[in-house]
Specification:
- The chain has nine helices and no strands.
- By secondary structure, the chain is mostly helical.
- It folds into two domains: about 70 residues; about 120 residues, no CATH class.
Length: about 210
Amino acid sequence: MIQHLDKDELNFIDNYLRNSGFDYLDVRLELIDHVASAIEKSMEEHDLEFYDAFKSYMVVNKKGLERNYELFKKRLQKTSFLVLGKEIITPKFLIFFCVAVTVIYMWNKFSTDPFPYAQSVWIAIISAGLVYFFGTLPKKRYRISSLEMLAWPLVASSYAMNLYFNLWVDDSYFLLKWPLVANILTAFLITAIAAFLRLFFLKRKQTNTLLAKT
């Protein structure tokens, strides 16, 4: 791990990578660790200042970094569903899921109006999208490839569920015959969206801790 470079130097590496088209934060973090370790070694072995060691490293290795960027991005995207799944089965989100199922059940039991299944899921999706969009600012510094990989499947799953089960209407056959299944599916999607946001804020925090960016 990074041991010797200070925060300004780490930020310099991050800004250079971002300005060079390395858009995704999660991939940049992998590269920053790799680049910083190589620069530290060069500084120690050749008695160089940071900027000289950085410039020498980039002259030789920038093309290799571009290849590694694509490889790291594909690897992170492939594991994105596994990461989300692991987050969903943590105790806090299992409790969140159970609470969501209970709230929907109690709503339908005691309210004169049925629970707004489709509307609640879309409100959650739109809210998460807005939080993610504004959370990547400034200059889209915090874009995360693995989370963006998850965004469309979550939207598509929500749309498919609502379309297939016709959850937009109160007299949906599915809701009348299998209300518990509708409760569980809706609660699961809302939980997955909440876990998506949790992962985003964790990655932002990790970055701010590493780079001390205010």
